[in-house]
Amino acid sequence: MSRRKGNIASPIKQKILLMLAAGTALSLTYTFKQQRRLAKEVMKEWKNIDRQRLYRLLDEFHHDRLISYDELPTGEVQITLTEDGRRQILRFDVDEMVIRRPLHWDGCWRVVFFDIPEAKRQSRDELRNKLQEIGFMELQKSAWVFPFDCQKEVDFLTEFFELRNFVRLAEIKNLTNDADLRLKFKLY
User: Fold this and answer.
1) Which of 68, 96, 124 is the last residue of a domain?
2) Could you tell me the superkingdom of the organism this chain comes from (predicted)?
């Protein structure tokens, strides 16, 4: 029976990969309080996983090149996510993406511009649909606008849809005729 490389459909496999990524996630959280809360949640989850199953899944992830093992001078083994592992994690989160709305608008418009070749039409359409789904408004054919900081989310989407070279994000202080946008985004 052959297994597809990187196939991690089961929830336990997803959970373990996400917990391995938590080390990276800790560095991306904003406050010490958030880091501490995330660390507690991860430690609680690690304790609930059957050790034999964990080792078997880690071997599977290593075989599928989702993680790598590095032996440290102390004799400890460090487990690191590979690029393929990071890509798998990105796939878990795209459906849950939400951009948080701050209490006050900073007056900047964020505009996503793209010029994506026809060969990547499906990815272009998926990006366009996702931008609309998370609240962007179409400014022109390949220009979408949003009023709040969305750098991380746009980076995430361009990586996920493998469109990094075709997408640009700009912050614009003055956008003429933006009254309709202010109304749509309830920025009055």
Assistant:
1) 96
2) Bacteria
Segment (H or E) for 5: none
Average pLDDT value for residue range 126-142: 94
> Any idea which residue has 């998370």 for tokens?
134
User: Model pTM?
Assistant: 0.56
Sign of CA dihedral 45, 79, 93, 149: positive
State the pLDDT confidence band at 6, using cuts at 50, 70 and 90: very low
pLDDT of residue 32: 66
Q: Which domain holds residue 139?
A: 109-184
Residue in 104, 175, 170 with CA at minimum distance from that of residue 142? 170
∠ CA 50-39-98, nearest 5°, is 105
**Alpha helix (H) ranges present in the chain?**
11-28, 32-47, 51-63, 83-93, 121-133, 151-160, 179-184
Q: What is the DSSP letter of 119?
A: G
**Whole-angstrom distance, CA of residue 89 vs CA of residue 141:** 30
Q: For residue 161, give the CATH number of its domain.
A: 3.30.70.240
